[in-house]
UniProtKB/TrEMBL annotation:
Keyword Nucleotide-binding attached: yes
Pfam families linked: CTP_transf_like
GO BP term (any one): NAD+ biosynthetic process
Organism domain of life: Bacteria
Name the UniProt record assigns to this protein: Probable nicotinate-nucleotide adenylyltransferase
Keywords of the record: ATP-binding, NAD, Nucleotide-binding, Nucleotidyltransferase, Pyridine nucleotide biosynthesis, Transferase
Protein's job: Catalyzes the reversible adenylation of nicotinate mononucleotide (NaMN) to nicotinic acid adenine dinucleotide (NaAD).
Residue ranges occupied by any Cytidyltransferase-like domain in the UniProt entry: 5-174
EC numbers on record: 2.7.7.18
MF (Gene Ontology): ATP binding; nicotinate-nucleotide adenylyltransferase activity
Catalyzed reactions: nicotinate beta-D-ribonucleotide + ATP + H(+) = deamido-NAD(+) + diphosphate
Name of encoding gene: nadD
Family: Belongs to the NadD family.
Length: 209
């Protein structure tokens, strides 16, 4: 199978994440999209509690539940150690040797990937799908792709991404004030956030992010 991997904190998952998965699925003829919540990301400050992780995972499950080719993979969520892309993708290659992996990342990550832990080890494990939004400079994106291909023998393709001005931070801030987040997240996720009163009293945490 051809499998797209979307990793992230998903705090919370929102329609921008789902649209990106949908575009990758259609544009590259993928068989499945795996949404992979990160339990202990090295580059972000999240609430490292079992309760917080549980909520993030449950919201991703709700968001993916009505799409037959969307899956939730808990490999990184179930480890207490920092999760690094190179080690995760290496393990997926070991566990699923017959499958072909496509790792989906954003434009900003494409330009900063050389700062990732053991980033060179990522390139042999997957094809990178670099999401380019409509407001990004296509020429600079292509130049970066060419550079990474030539220097590291990376396999990278451009993924035309929808321009959706929604962020998890903005959603958390609205939820903290008791405002609606409907239409920013799937209905089931909006209901979950309201039911569990998530993201109350999170102003200090988001000021640090």
């Amino acid at each position: 199978m051809k499998i797209g991997i979307m990793g992230g904190t998903f705090d919370p998952v929102h329609i921008g994440h789902l649209l990106l998965g949908e575009f990758a699925y259609e544009d590259f003829g993928l068989d499945q999209i795996w949404f992979m919540p990160n339990g202990n990301p090295p580059h972000k400050k999240t609430e490292h509690t079992e309760e917080s992780l549980h909520h993030r995972v449950e919201m991703v499950k709700l968001a993916a539940s009505d799409v037959p080719y969307f899956r939730v993979n808990l490999y990184e969520a179930e480890t207490e150690e920092h999760s690094y892309t190179y080690s995760t993708m290496r393990e997926f290659n070991r566990q699923y040797p017959e499958d072909e992996f496509y790792f989906i990342l954003g434009a900003d990550s494409l330009f900063s990937i050389e700062k990732w832990r053991d980033f060179r080890k990522i390139f042999p494990t997957c094809t990178i799908l670099a999401a380019m939004r409509d407001d990004k400079d296509a020429q600079s994106m292509q130049s970066q792709i060419t550079y990474l291909k030539e220097r590291y023998n990376a396999r990278i393709e451009l993924l035309q991404a929808p321009l959706v001005e929604i962020s998890s931070t903005a959603i958390r801030k609205r939820a903290a004030k008791g405002l609606s987040v409907r239409y920013m997240v799937p209905d089931a996720v909006a209901e979950y956030i309201a039911e569990h009163q998530l993201y109350r009293n999170i102003e200090k945490r988001d000021e640090q992010n």
